[in-house]
Amino acid sequence: QVQLVESGGGLVQTGGSLRLSCAASGRTFSSYAMGWFRQAPGKEREFVDDISWSCGRTNYADSVNGRFTISRDNAKNTVYLQMNSLKPEDTAVYYCATKVRGSYKYWGQGTQVTVSS
After folding, report:
1. What is the pLDDT of the chain when averaged over all its residues?
2. ∠ CA(6), CA(75), CA(71), 5° rounding?
3. What whole-number distance in Å separates Cα of residue 52 and Cα of residue 33?
4. Cα 43 to Cα 52: distance, rounded to the nearest angstrom
């Protein structure tokens, strides 16, 4: 089993940056692909990006491509989300998740990101 704890959220102005972290417990962290999702008030949770276990492949939603960067440090059991050029529409609770056998099985509790206009 994997436990995930996100951190790094907060309030930032439009155009600003934040870096989210997701710390994982469990010795098999490096074996799993990891993803970030977000959910804005009144909206469904949406995919943001993901990264393969070896860091060899990443995928991004069109809405964040070119502004967000996902990375991971398997030695630290941590995945990161660097968010630049933030927009008010990026406001949401951000979640990290672990992909197991093709589906996201373990989820963190989320961290709030608020972008003011």
Report:
1. 94
2. 55
3. 4
4. 27
Say if residue 65's pLDDT is above 90: yes
Task: For residue 104, give every residue at least 6 positions away whose Cβ sits within 8 Å of its Cβ, in sequence order, or none.
Answer: 35, 37, 97, 98
β-strands 58-60, 111-116: how paired? unpaired
Give the sheet arrangement for strand 18-25, strand by strand: 3-7, 18-25, 78-83, 68-73
Q: Give residue 23's Cα distance to chain centre.
A: 11
pLDDT in tens, 17-36: 999 999 999 767 778 899 99
Count other Cβ atoms within 10 Å, centred on residue 7. 13
Residue 69 dihedral angles phi and psi, to the nearest 5°: -135, 125
Q: What gap in Å lies between CA 22 and CA 4, rounded to an integer?
A: 6
Which of 34, 24, 19 is closest to 4 using CA atoms? 24
Q: What is the pLDDT of residue 78?
A: 94
Tokens representing 81?
């989300």
